[in-house]
Amino acid sequence: MANPQTESIIQLLKDHAIRVTPQRIAIIKTLKELDHPTAEEIHDHLMGEYASMSFATVYNTLRSLKEVGIVREIRCGEGCTRFELLEHDHFHLLCKKCGQIDDIHIDSDINLKHVENKSGYALTDLNIEFYGLCPSCQSS
Hints:
The protein is of the alpha+beta class. It folds into 2 domains: 1-87, Arc Repressor Mutant, subunit A, CATH 1.10.10; 88-140, Ferric-uptake regulator, C-terminal dimerisarion domain (Dna Ligase, domain 1, 2-Layer Sandwich). It is built from 6 helices and 5 strands. Strands 4-3-5 form a 3-stranded mixed beta sheet, with no helix packed on it. It has a two-stranded antiparallel sheet with strand order 1-2. Strand 3 (91-95) and strand 4 (101-104) form a beta hairpin.
């Protein structure tokens, strides 16, 4: 019998009409374990248990999970893309020097309908990122 975490991942995949595979379960578990990992970090993390899993499998799975709204892609500079599960609404703080990413939970009173009406866009996502220097980079 699967553990509760695995069962919740299986249900998440089923809820989004995504075929359940051991690799997809492992990638989602890794997203829960690692803090804003890159696709490469996810691949490296899984190599012990899934030695035959290609980087393309990891990347394509992340892309599929992003398309259905399970995963968020965070662009953190030139050629740097990190990923996270969309478990709760929050924003990001990104350090422009070291690349550290931190979550920040603040009240947001952004009226998406107002933005849609004013712009003519049909909004599907909201992603706000704050850029600056983390405390460590400020002190060094």
